[in-house]
Amino acid sequence: ADADPNTGLAVYDTWDSTGWGVFGGTSLSAPLIAAIYALSGGEPAGLHGGEPWYKPGVAVNDVTSGTNAPLSTDCAPNAYLCNAGTGYDGPTGVGTPAAPLAAPPPPAPAVYTSVPPFRVADTRSGSGYPLAGHSLGAGGNVTVPIWGAASSPPVPTTATAAVLNVTATNGTHSSYLTVYPSGTNPPFASNLNTGGRTVANLVTVPIGGNGAVGIFNNLGSTDVVVDLEGYFVPGGGPAGLYHPLAPARITDTRSGSGQANAGHTPSSTDTVVVQVTGAGGVPASGVSAVVLNVTAVSSNGAGFLTVYPGATGKPLASNLNFVLNQVVPNRVIVPVGADGTVDIYNSKGYTDIVVDVGGWFTDASGAGGSRFTPLPPTRIADSRSGSGLQLAGRTLNSGAIRTVNANLPPGAVAVAANVTAADTTHDSFLTVYPDQPPPPTASDLNWAAGQVVPNLVIAELGAGKLAVFNHAGLVDVIVDVFGYWAP
Q1: Pick from 264, 477, 422: which is nearest to 354 by CA?
Q2: Cβ 242 vs Cβ 485: under 8 Å
Q3: Is-contact 483 163, C-beta < 8 A?
Q4: I want to staple 217 with a disulfide (CB 3.0 to 4.6 A). Which of 121, 136, 321, 429 is the partner?
C-alpha cells in the first residue's frame, strides 16, 4: 500500500476472501500513514499499472479473516518489484511478519565455472541492459535473472549459486544492499554499504528456484550494476575444485615495495600484467581461475579497475571504483589467461595497485580439491555491543586479533563470508586468515576513519575458525556467511 504523507489518503490493494480490489481516497490515522509510508519507502502509487507498490517479501493480510493472502497477480509482470511472502498484522498494517518463507534445503556441493566478467543488469536509465530505468527506492528490490544469462556459454539451469560483482552508484542516502536468493525474504545480512558514493563488492549468493537473485536496498535510492563473474554447478570435476591458500601478496606497484610490478603505477588506460601461476602458492599449471584481493591505493582522481584473463580482450565491466587518494579493495575471482596471467586495466588517472592471492580453482587436468555448498546468508559474528552474536562487545583495538568460529560442518576448509568494518576511528585495514599466528602480509579490507566498508572474504579455515587482525584504531567487525568449501 501507499500513503500520501501530505493528504493522508491511501491507495492500496486488499483481499476480502474472494478477490483483490483497489481502493483509493481512504483517510487514515497519522500513525498508520507513517507506518505505511515507511513500509513502502514512499514510492508513489501507480508505479506499475496504477497498482500500489509492495514491501519486498510481504503480503497484505486478509482484512476480513486476518489470514495471510498471496500477493495479487498484478505483481507477476513486474516481478522486479515484489516477491511473494508473508503478511504483516492486519488490524494495524505494521508489526513483525508471520513466519518467514521456508528456505529450500542446501544445494549439493558444487564446482565452479569462471567466466570473463559479463554485465547482466544495470538499473541506470538508458543503460541498454536488463532493469534499465528501475532504480531501487527505499525498501525496494529488483530481481536479476541468472539462469540463461548470455555469458559464453549461458549459465545452465543446474547452477545453484552465482558469483557477482555488484556496484551501487547514484545513491542518495547512507544505506546497504542485501543480495539473496530470489523468492525468499531478504535475510538479516548485508553485502554493500553505500553513502552517496560508487562502491562495489563481490557477492557469492545462492540462486533462487526461479533462476534469479534479489537485491534489496534499505534507504534512499540507488542504481545497481551487476557483472557475472562465474557460477557453481553440483557434482562435476576435476575442473572447478577449490584450493584455499593463506593470503599472500603477489603484486604491489608502489615504488620500493619489493613485489612484482614495483614502480609500475598504471596511468590512464594503462594495464598491469600480474603473473598468478607459480606465485603465492598457486601451482605453475592446472589452474583455471584464482581468488584475488585487489586494492587501489593513492589514486590522483576518480576511476575504476577491470580485472580479466591475461592476453584477452578487455570486457565491458568493472571490479572496483575509487576516488582521489582513496584506498579501496575488492575481491575478484578471475579466469587465468593461457600464459598464467591476469590483466588489470586502470580507467583514468594514476593509481597504485596491490594484489593478494587467496586460492585457486583447478582446470580439467586437475585432481583433488573442494566443492562449494552455498548457504542462505547468515550473520555469525558482530562485535558491536548488544549484538547477541559472537564477538559482541569485543570491539577490535589497534593490533587486536579476534577468533571467529565459522560454525560450519566438520571438514570445511574455506568459507565465503562478507566482512564489514564499522565504527572505524582511524585509517586502517583488516586481515582475515586461518586461525593460526602470525597475520600474513596481506589485507582484506581498507578504510579511512569514519567509513563503513564491506568486502567478500574467501578465507581458508584453521580448525573451523578464522582470525581477524586490525592494524590501527578501533573497529567493529561484522561477519555474514554465504557458503563453504569441503572435500
Answers
A1: 264
A2: yes
A3: no
A4: 136
Q: pLDDT tens digit string along 217-273?
A: 999 999 999 999 999 999 877 999 999 998 999 999 999 999 999 999 998 889 999
Q: What angle do CA 241, 245, 248 make, to 5 degrees?
A: 140
The letter for the amino acid at 61 is N
Q: Checking phi first, is residue 236 left (phi over 0); if not, alpha (psi -120 to 50) or beta?
A: left
Give the Cβ contact number of residue 281 at 10 Å. Answer: 16
Give the contacts of 336 (CB within 8 A, at least 6 positions apart).
276, 277, 287, 288, 289, 290, 309, 310, 342
Phi/psi-derived region of residue 28, left when phi > 0, alpha when psi is between -120 and 50, beta in every other case: beta
Contact call for residues 175 and 199 (beta carbons, < 8 A): no
Grid cell at residue 269? 588506460
Q: What is the pLDDT of residues 427-463, one digit of tens each?
A: 999 999 998 778 888 889 888 899 888 899 999 999 9
Angle at CA of residue 333, ends 327 and 338, nearest 5°: 115
- DSSP three-state, residue 258: coil
| φ and ψ of 78, to 5 deg | -125, 50
Q: What's the rounded mean pLDDT across residues 280-290?
A: 96
Is the torsion defined by CA of 41, 200, 461, 466 positive or negative?
Answer: negative
Q: Which residues have a Cβ under 8 Å from the Cβ of 257 and sit 6 or more positions away?
A: none
- Is residue 37 classed as helix, strand or coil in its secondary structure? helix
Answer whether 483's CB lies under 8 Å from 416's CB: yes
CA angle at residue 260 from 284 to 336, to 5 degrees? Answer: 40
pLDDT for position 441: 86
Q: What is the DSSP string of 169-206?
A: ES--SEEEEEEEETTSPPPS--SEEEESS-EEEEEEEE
Taking alpha carbons only, the member of 143, 153, 142 closest to residue 118 is 153
Structural Rg of the chain based on CA atoms: 23
Q: Which parts of 347-391 are beta strand (E)?
A: 352-362, 371-382
- CA distances 339 to 293, 363, 470, Å, are 20, 14, 36
Tell me which residue has cell 563503513: 452
CB 206 within 8 A of CB 374: yes
Sign of CA dihedral 74, 75, 76, 77: positive
- Residues 3, 45 contacting (CB under 8 angstroms): no
What's the rounded Cα separation, in Å, for the pair 415 and 432? 11
| 40, pLDDT greater than 50 | no
Exposed, middle or buried, 77 (CB in 10 Å: 0-12/13-18/19+)?
exposed
